[in-house]
Every structure is written in C-alpha cells, then in structure tokens.
Write a structure and sequence with these properties.
alpha/beta, 2 domains, nine-stranded mixed beta sheet, six-stranded mixed beta sheet, 12 helices, 17% strand, globular
Length: 477
C-alpha cells in the first residue's frame, strides 16, 4: 500500500442544507445532487471511497456541512473513521476526534437550581466499534462472603449453595443506540457504528424528559404582564411538544380576563364554543355518566400537534370578565379530562382570574422577548409573586424564563445588528439566571411571528431550542 502523505491529494467535501454540494479531489470536482443532507453526506463518502480504492491507499477528507466540519479518513477497503484535525499523520493512524463550528446546536440553557438532575457533558470517544472479547455472564451474587466448604461423608469438600434470591441474570446497563445525526449518523447508516455526539445525547435526554408520565394532572401558567412578550407562541409550543412526546392529554387554555389571541393563532374546530360555554355545561361534564369524548364539543383540536385549545370568550361586545369562581369551575372540568393544562394569560396580575390561575399552577413559565421593556415587565411579574410569599413565591423561585430573540423582521437587519440582538438576548438571560430555576434562549423564527403556529413549520434549530424549553418545564413536574 502506498505511503504517500495524508494531505495529498487534497480532498474536500462541501455539503449544503438542500442536499447539493461538491467533492474536490486534487484538481477534479465531483458535483453532488441529492434530495437531502443525509443523502449528500453518503454520496460524498462514496465518491471519496472510490478515489481511495483507485489510488490503493487511504485518503484524508475535510467534510463540511451546515452542522460543522468533520475530518475523516476514508480507507481503501471502504471503511471510514474520524481523524484528528490537528495532525497530518500517515493515513490510518490518526486519532479519532472531531472539530465543530463555534455556534452550539443545543439551546443555551442556564440551570440555576439543584432541583434539576445533573447531566453528563462528556462526549464518548468517537471510535469505530471493534470486535471485543466475550464478557462474563451477568450473574451477580449480592453476598460478598461465602461459607467455607463443608466435608461430605467421603471427605470431599462440598461448596455451600447460594440462594437463588441472590442471583440475577438481568443486565441493568442500558444499551447505547448508535448515532443518528450528523456525519456520525450517516456513517452509522453506512454500516460503521458510531457513538452519538454530546449534542445528540443531550437531545435524547430532553426527549426522555418530556416523554415521562407523572401522577396526577399538572397546570402550567405562562405569564408576563406586558403584551407582545411571546406568551401565546410559548403556550402553543409547550403544548405541542409535551403532547407529541408524552402522549398525555393536553389542553391549552386562554385565561384572558376578556378576549385573548390563542384562538387566532391555532386551528378552530367545527364549532365556536369557548370557556364560557364549558362553564355553562360544567355540571354535565362533571357527571359520572358523561364520557370523555363529550369534551370535544368545547375545545378545538390541533390536528398536527395533538393538543386541544380552550378559547377565551369572543363576544363582540366584550361585556364579560372571567371571575375567580369561573376559573375554579373550568379548572375542575379540565383536570377530569386532561393530564396537562397550559394556561395563557392576560396582562393584569391584579385581575381575579389571573390570581386564581396562580393558585392552581404547578409550574410557572415567564416568556420574554429580547427587548428591555418586556424583560422589565417579566422581572416585575416575578417580583410581585415573590412579594406575596407562600405558594406564589415558590412558583417565582422555580420559574422557567424563556428568552426569545426579537420578533422584528431580520431581513433588513445588518450583520452587526443581528450580533447586537443576540448579545441583548444573552444579557437578559444572564440577568434572570440567578433568580429562577432555569433560563432558555430561543432563536428568531419567522414561523412564530404571524398566522397559525405549527411545530412542523419551525426551523430545526428552533424546534431543538423549544424541546430544551419543554424539558426544562417538565423537570418541574
């Protein structure tokens, strides 16, 4: 086999999000035209492997795509391994490592309380799986001492038998599934089992967290007494993610004292009923003879995101304000039919329905856009609850603050303006971190600005960030 230096010929692969790209081997260019990112990665590996076979030796390839840079060693026999980006040793001897862009792919979450279980941040060594020797059977005696052997009538020592209660054949260690994302996932699908990256392991842990079931119903209140703070999009996103992953019956309730906007940003069912209609029919809905399907007469099902919406009153005259007693009735009905209630709210912390909502709340969420007056309103909301003491103060201390980048159109913003917007979001997040349980940042996404909100319409980075936010909320259950 040739011992030519690893850097010759120079091999680069540039992959785009739409599945196109090119592989440059020396002076030749090989275009890639596929349908998606994963297929383009596989095509790039195949092109380089073909060149390695023709040359009869391994090739070092610098692979780059929207998720980062991945130095690989493509062997002449078609096998693939990751290479150390800092060395140019002889092919096949590189240490397995990886280089990524500075921009993180996980949401910037600040954990500030010991109530959140610690998570390992170490990344498994990205080596290919090699044949291993057979391990001993998983028979684990729990006793550390054994009785001395006894003498048989013939004088032969006989081992004292242990109880079957002290023996188990079950293997308790979980099986780590191979990588499914990025170049690691592509290589796993090509037959080279790769362990998941730290980012993928963090995402799996968030999915596990939001997929849990908990005993009894839970109520989440989304509050900020300033309008335009992203309350309604937050309610929709949390409801969608928790409903999708946990499968728990979930309802988003617009608890505005008069008329809210949750119904405008979500699908409407085949009726126009609101919370007032549900309250009027509460005796029937709470009757033991009423079946669960009857609740569909009063809520509006979200067909793709799998949760229901209880709309606020949309009376054109606007002559009714929800009372504390009506909140109690509606909450009693909903806890019979749903395991999770996510409540939108108005802007008046002094309103009777707002204060009664807090009484029923198990987890507080405070959304804020990266604008100083929204952040100040969020701070005052938390301060108000803290000053009331008891249950209200407890909610404030264990709140989850969700900081979204400005919803202003970014098409007209310069690179410097975008940088300032991100810096402002980080400043606000850092300011809240010492006072609450968790802070999560959400990137700008045009799909959240206008019209009906759908989880599937969000960009992948936004979906990932909202998954992190939902996991932070679920840890409070």
């Amino acid at each position: 086999m040739s011992t030519a230096p690893a850097e010759w010929p120079k091999v680069e692969a540039i992959i785009k999000e739409d599945g196109t790209g090119e592989v440059r081997i020396g002076g030749s260019i090989h275009p890639i035209q596929t349908g998606d990112l994963a297929a383009a990665r596989a095509a790039a590996v195949e092109i380089v492997a073909g060149a390695a076979a023709k040359l009869g030796r391994n090739l070092r390839a610098a692979m780059s795509d929207p998720e980062g840079e991945w130095p690989l060693i493509i062997h002449a026999d078609g096998t693939v391994e990751e290479a150390d980006p800092g060395t140019a040793q002889e092919p096949g001897k590189e240490k397995p490592a990886r280089r990524r862009k500075a921009t993180p792919t996980v949401p910037a979450e600040v954990i500030t309380s010991s109530q959140i279980p610690a998570r390992k941040d170490t990344e498994p060594t990205p080596e290919r799986k090699r044949p291993q020797s057979m391990e001993k059977p998983a028979i684990v005696p729990t006793k550390t001492e054994t009785a001395p052997p006894t003498e048989t009538p013939s004088g032969t020592p006989q081992q004292t038998r242990q109880s079957l209660k002290d023996t188990s054949f079950l293997v308790s260690a979980p099986v780590l599934e191979p990588a499914t994302q990025g170049w690691r996932g592509t290589l796993s699908r090509l037959g080279f089992r790769m362990e998941p990256s730290a980012e993928e392991l963090a995402e799996r842990e968030d999915i596990r967290t939001v997929s849990q079931h908990w005993p009894g119903p839970r109520t989440v209140a989304v509050v900020n007494r300033k309008g335009g703070a992203n309350k309604t999009p937050t309610v929709v996103m949390l409801s969608a993610i928790l409903a999708r992953y946990s499968g728990a019956a979930t309802v988003a309730w617009d608890n505005n004292e008069s008329q809210g906007t949750l119904g405008w940003r979500t699908e409407q069912g085949g009726h126009s009923n609101s919370v007032l209609d549900l309250i009027d029919s509460s005796q029937t809905l709470l009757s033991p003879s009423t079946n669960a399907a009857e609740i569909a007469r009063f809520v509006h099902h979200q067909t793709s995101d799998k949760f229901d919406v209880l709309r606020s009153d949309e009376n054109e005259e606007g002559d009714h304000e929800v009372t504390a007693e009506e909140v109690d009735i509606a909450h009693q009905v909903l806890t019979r039919y749903y395991r999770l209630i996510v409540m939108d709210s108005g802007n008046t912390a002094r309103a009777a329905n707002w204060r009664r909502m807090i009484h029923h709340t198990d987890q507080l969420v405070v959304p804020v856009t990266a604008i100083e007056d929204r952040a100040e309103a969020a701070r005052l909301t938390l301060q108000t609850l803290e000053s009331r003491g008891g249950h209200d103060a407890e909610l404030a201390a264990n709140a989850v603050v969700i900081v979204s980048e400005s919803t202003d159109s970014k098409r007209s913003m310069s690179g410097e303006a975008l940088k300032r917007a991100k810096a402002e979001a980080q400043r606000i997040a850092d300011g809240f971190a010492p006072h609450v349980r968790s802070v999560v940042r959400i990137p700008y996404d045009p799909a959240l600005v206008n019209g009906p909100i759908r989880y599937d319409s969000l960009q992948p980075a936004t979906q990932r960030a909202w998954l992190g936010a939902a996991a932070a909320v679920a840890r409070g259950f």
